[in-house]
Every structure is written in C-alpha cells, then in structure tokens.
Amino acid sequence: MPVDEAQALWLEFARTRDKALRDRLIMSYAPLVKFVAGRLGSGLPAHVDEGDLVSYGLLGLIGAIERYEPERDVKFETYALSRIRGAIVDELRAMDWVPRSVRSRAREIERAMTDFESRLHRAASDEELAKELGLSEDELVESLNDIGRSSIAALDELWTLGTGGDQVALIDSIEDTSGLGPQSALAQAELKEALAEAISRLPEREKLVVTLYYYEELTLREIGEVLGVTESRVSQLHTKAILRLKGRLTGASDASRASASGPSAPG
Questions:
Q1: Which residue from 83, 89, 107, 113 has the fewest beta carbons nearer than 10 Å?
Q2: Cβ contact 236:145 at 8 Å
Q3: pTM
C-alpha cells in the first residue's frame, strides 16, 4: 500500500473506528503475521502447527491496529511486530509444552556458564562447560539441541528484573523506542545498553550468530551457510549465546538492584 494511501486510511480509521476500514488494515498488514509466525515456527517442534501461530499472531495484529495512534512518530510495522510476536509467545507459554527436564537443564547450563565466568573471567569452552556440568561433550550437545528445539523466540524468553520488578522483553530493546513514556524509554535505553555490552563480550562465533539472527534477520540455515557449519551447530551456538546472555543480564540486574537499595543495616 502506498505511504500516502496508508496514512489516509489510518487517519480515517482513527476518526471513525469503522470496522470495514479495520478489516482493510488487517488485510494490508497480514504479511507481518506470516513473517513473524514463520520465524518463530522454524525453531519449534513439528507438532506445533504454523497455522496456529498465524491465528495467535492475527489477534496480536488486531490488538495493535486497535491501539495504534498514527499521530505518534512510530511506524506501525515497528509497533505491530512486537505485539504480534508477544501474542504468539504468550499463547505458546500458556500451553506450557516445554518439558520440565529441558527447563531444568537450561537453568543448570546457565548457572554453570555464569559460575565459570565469575571464577576465570572468560567464557568456558564446550569441553570445560561439559566438565563443569559433569557431562560428556556429547551429552552437552544433546542438551543444547533439546533446549534449542524447545526455545520460543529466545530473546523474548529473557527478562530483566529491573526497577520496580518490571519485566521487559529484550527483543523490544532492539526495536524503535520512540513514542514510549519517559520512564519506559529510560528503562529500554538502559536495557539496550546492557544487552549491547553483554553481546559484545560473547565468544566471537556466538556473537556473530546473535547479530545475524536478531539484527540481520537471517535464518539459522542461512547463518550456517555463512559460517560453513550445519544448521544444528548454529542452533547450539545460538542456545549457548542466549543462556550466556541471560546469566549475565540477570546478574547485572541483581547487582543494580543491590546497589540501588544501598548497604544493608547491620544485623
């Protein structure tokens, strides 16, 4: 849809709230839902139907259309992508289909990574990480594959525990923050800075995978072609990067809260 036509349609819908205009907007932006569902669905088990993801995403798109304020300086596509993704991820979380054993193993690997880095001030190799966990390298690889297959929009699964206990999806910090209130914009800016710093300290291959997947929007298969490795290996690198980021950002958030609260009173 041409820009001028889209702007006129948005302004008319904002004025009249006409259902026919809303339906035109839904049809115009439906490809966004297909795009998001395709990206999220590519890493999910076969029993999760992409058609269901599209249905969940359409609810997010409709909500975005209903709430969008065209006079604010935020592109609708930027605003809608986050809401579509959020609607899909919320529904998948509600299904709670990720096995408890996989969640538990993810937490174990995350803690082992964090503990190792705290002691030696560098990232653990696969061999060192396996030893830290009491696993063989093959068992570590199998665990990473299980976690990767169970991931749902991995950066969406990472949360800060920021001021006031608010939870902010990291993926939103990558996107346009214009139009947010001052407090939300500040929280997003701080989160974006912390995320950028944490990504910069990833091992080189993990950093490249995160950059290509989340910023350049390549698929895992395409990243494998760039790196000259299998898609499965890219998935393992991606999973390790996400667990490493989660550990670092959770630790940074805890330290920030401790600092903000000041020294404890003597017991």
A1: 107
A2: yes
A3: 0.67
